[in-house]
Structure formats: structure tokens, C-alpha cells
Design goal:
alpha/beta; globular; 10-stranded mixed beta sheet; 2 domains; 7 helices; two-stranded antiparallel ribbon; Spore Coat Polysaccharide Biosynthesis Protein SpsA, Chain A; about 45% helix
């Protein structure tokens, strides 16, 4: 029986997502195609993907936005739902997505994309504040009017046309532990520093001090992270630390160069 909405390809980019991939795929089993693009997993990611009916492509890692654009380009259908390997589309969101696309097919809606909130599970609880929720992300769009940005980190899906808002959450379980979050923050801080260099942002000692303080106030006070208890405090401290590292990494080459000049000066004397 033909669907009364545009067919959907759910895309998932992966690298060693064996622990959570089955849940992600099962949450989008209603999609007409599930496409997994893997960048060299050494665990059972590919086997799990194939076992659960996904089409699998391999592509060496080019960057987050670049890999998602590759997946989007190679999908069989124009409407693309992007899900990470550690995420899951909640049953309520699945129903809401299909209803929204039925409205598009019937001509009752002119939206070219849809955003919806992402809900994160962290150290034993669902996080509700601190900027983690509701964290609205555009993850569903007609690829003929949409493309992912390609910074080193924090890519986004840009849509040329109206974007609708759905209310039900995308579920995320990206951090097994505080240590896992810290490792992710270290990587993202390094990539974020590279983006700043590409934008010609100059290193600044003042920003090295003020940016982390501002991030803590933003997440813990203004965005009410304190209402998430100890978890909210840990999240805000880690966010400030990640911000500190980003600007420290940006400053590092200048400090190294000054130290080298100092040592050369001493050797000449």
C-alpha cells in the first residue's frame, strides 16, 4: 500500500557505534530506507547495520558536515531524516514526523524542513535545563532545499525555505560516563580552535578568562542548569572547561613561538 507522504531516507553516520546502533536503526524502522555511512569502524557496527536492514556505505572521515552531506547525496529519497548512532527517534516523534510529511504531501504545508527538541540522558537522569533541553535541531529536510554546513565541529542543517517545529523529542544517550564527556569535550575544543583560526579570530588572554566564566553563567544560571542538580553543575563546569580549552588551544601556537624566541635569544647571548 503506497504511503500518503513523501518517502524518507534515514541517514546515520557511524564510527564504532556497535553499542547503540541497533536502537537507532530500530527507532526509524518505518522509513523507506535506512542508510548507514561508516568511516572505518573496527567493532561490529557494520554487521549490526546490515543485520537490521540498513544499506551500508563506507567513506573515509572527511568531517561531520561533509559526511552528512555525503550520506544525504547518496540517499535514495529526497526527504532525509538524520540521526546519530547514539540517538533514537521516540515513538511519539515518529508519529509526529509522519503526520507532518502527510501534510506536505497533501499540500497543507509548505515546509522544506523540520526542527525538533533533543533530550539527553546523562549520569542517571534526563537533563531538562542548562541548554541541553529543549535543544531544537533541524534534522529532517528535503535535500533539494537543504545542506549541512561544514565547520570542524557543531555542523548544522541549513534549509532554503520555511522550517516547521515539532514538539516530540529525539532521544540522545551519547555519554556513558563523565570521562566520556570529557574526552568528547577535549576533541571538540581542539576542533573549535581550528574553526576560530579559519575565521581569523586572534588569540586573546581576556577571552581565555571571560569566555569560560560566561559559559558557566549561561548554562548554570541563565539556562537554569542548577535545576538539574549535581548533574547540571557537572555539565556547566565541563562546558566552561571546554570553552577554556578552545581558547587555550587557540593561544598555544603564540605561546610556543614566544618560548622559542626566548630560548633562541638566550642561546645567542
Amino acid at each position: 500500500m503506497p504511503v500518503s507522504r513523501p518517502p524518507v531516507t534515514a541517514t546515520i553516520i557511524t564510527l564504532n557505534e556497535g553499542k547503540t546502533l541497533a536502537r537507532a536503526i530500530q527507532s526509524v524502522a518505518w522509513a523507506e530506507e535506512i542508510l548507514v555511512v561508516d568511516s572505518g569502524s573496527t567493532d561490529d557496527t557494520i554487521e549490526i547495520a546490515k543485520k537490521h536492514g540498513a544499506r551500508v556505505l563506507s567513506n573515509p572521515w572527511p568531517g561531520y558536515g561533509q559526511q552528512k552531506n555525503f550520506a544525504q547525496k547518496n540517499a535514495k529519497h529526497d526527504w532525509i531524516l538524520n540521526v546519530d548512532g547514539d540517538e533514537a527517534v521516540s515513538p511519539a516523534l515518529s508519529v509526529e514526523i509522519r503526520a507532518a510529511l502527510e501534510a506536505v504531501a497533501a499540500g497543507r504545508s509548505e515546509f522544506k524542513g523540520f526542527r525538533f527538541p533533543r533530550k539527553n540522558f546523562y549520569i542517571g537522569r534526563w537533563i531538562r535545563f542548562g541548554g541541553w533541553y529543549p535543544n531544537f535541531l533541524v534534522r529532517l529536510a528535503d535535500r533539494r532545499a537543504a545542506q549541512w554546513t561544514e565547520p570542524h565541529v557543531h555542523e548544522s542543517l541549513e534549509v532554503r525555505g520555511p522550517v516547521g517545529t515539532l514538539s516530540q523529542p529525539l532521544l540522545n544517550d551519547s555519554f556513558d560516563s563523565i570521562e566520556c564527556q570529557i574526552h568528547t569535550n577535549l576533541r571538540f575544543a581542539c576542533l573549535g580552535a581550528e574553526d576560530l583560526r579559519r575565521k581569523k579570530v586572534k588569540p586573546s588572554r581576556i577571552k581565555l578568562i571571560l569566555k569560560p566564566l560566561g559559559k558557566f553563567v549561561e548554562t548554570y544560571v541563565l539556562k537554569r542548569g542548577f535545576l538539574d542538580g549535581l548533574a547540571g553543575f557537572i555539565i556547566s563546569i565541563n562546558a566552561a572547561h571546554s570553552m577554556f580549552l578552545k581558547y587555550a588551544y587557540l593561544l598555544e601556537p603564540e605561546l610556543a613561538e614566544r618560548q622559542l624566541d626566548k630560548e633562541l635569544g638566550k642561546s645567542i647571548e
